[in-house]
Amino acid sequence: MPKLTDILTKFPFADGRKYPRLIRKEEYSNALYPPDNAFTSDNTFTIVSTDTFMLGIYELGPGGAFDPLDIHPGDEFYYILQGPIVQRSGNGQFAYLETGDGLFMPQEAWHKAHNFSDQKVRVLYFITPKAWGEDIPPAYIPTDAETKFYKGPNNDKLPDMRSVIRNITRQGCTDDIGSWPVDGKEARDYPQAVYTVRDCDKLNNIHGTRHPMLMRFIGSNDYGHFGEFILPPGGYGPRCSEEDCHEGDAAIFCIDGPITINLTQLQESFQLRPEDSFFLPAGTPYQLVNFENKPVKAVFAVTAL
Fold first, then answer.
1. Cβ atoms 177, 203 nearer than 8 A
2. 89 pLDDT exceeds 70?
3. Out of the domains of life, which is the source (predicted)?
4. What does pTM read for this prediction?
């Protein structure tokens, strides 16, 4: 299995030529990060790493944490596949995330994760537009003592976040697409706050009118869009979503399936089993098809709608 640094921006497309592709769970690239100490590493599975985004899964064992703190030059979004997990930010926020919850972390927000449970935790992450800078890990990484926490020695030297963190509990609307849970540009200003997006906080909308499909945004801003598709079962015959096409690259990750991806112009279709993924280059028309007698669910990661 290649090193994580060897596949950045070129997985699963080693030659850089992107095309519609089914990526089976068994094909994900596995590595420890950080690679130099298994005791403080997470188990990382890279699904997609291109010039526009990175999609993957990381796991932490019971009682585990990844160390040191991490940072990215792009925004990062989470979907908790198996919780609970505690996500810690350098500014003193501690997000307790359960299965199905989401998280938004703006670029350059220091963070770290803890597993205080007796079960393995698993997180689906989406980082866009760029996951890593020139140095991996960064040349400077703050120690735990330099972050903010209960009775931390440097708490007085760090910003008071109470006036920074926005209230996101209001009912969202269609006009919020592109700025959910907060405006991306404003969120990236120092000091950066992170935002838990619980199931009740997801931005709900409908894709299509003749054959509606539920969309539930965890995050939506000028860098990317991340959330859930829920496609109901059909009546006589399968249920199909209406055709869609995105300005930017995208990926679909199957949560509850199987789900069929139908490439309408290419007249090709692919069935995704749970935790399989599909990469869609910018400008690829597609629809989702549900042949089951129950709703199916997928996570979407799109760089530009």
1. yes
2. yes
3. Bacteria
4. 0.96
Specify whether the CB–CB gap between 283 and 245 falls below 8 A.
yes
At a CB cut-off of 8 Å and minimum separation 6, what does 285 contact?
Answer: 243, 244, 245, 263, 264, 265
Domain boundary among 135, 168, 197: 197
* pLDDT at site 93: 96
Residue 1's pLDDT is 72
| β partners of residue 280 | 250
Pair 187, 193: CB distance under 8 Å: yes
What average pLDDT does the segment 212-219 reach? 97
User: Dihedrals φ, ψ of 187, to 5°?
Assistant: -65, -25
Same domain membership, residue 98 and residue 80: yes
Q: Which domain holds residue 19?
A: 4-197
Residue for token pair 């789900």: 259
Percent of the chain with pLDDT over 90: 82
Task: Residue 231: give its domain's CATH number.
Answer: 2.60.120.10
Indicate whether 148 and 216 sit together in one domain.
no
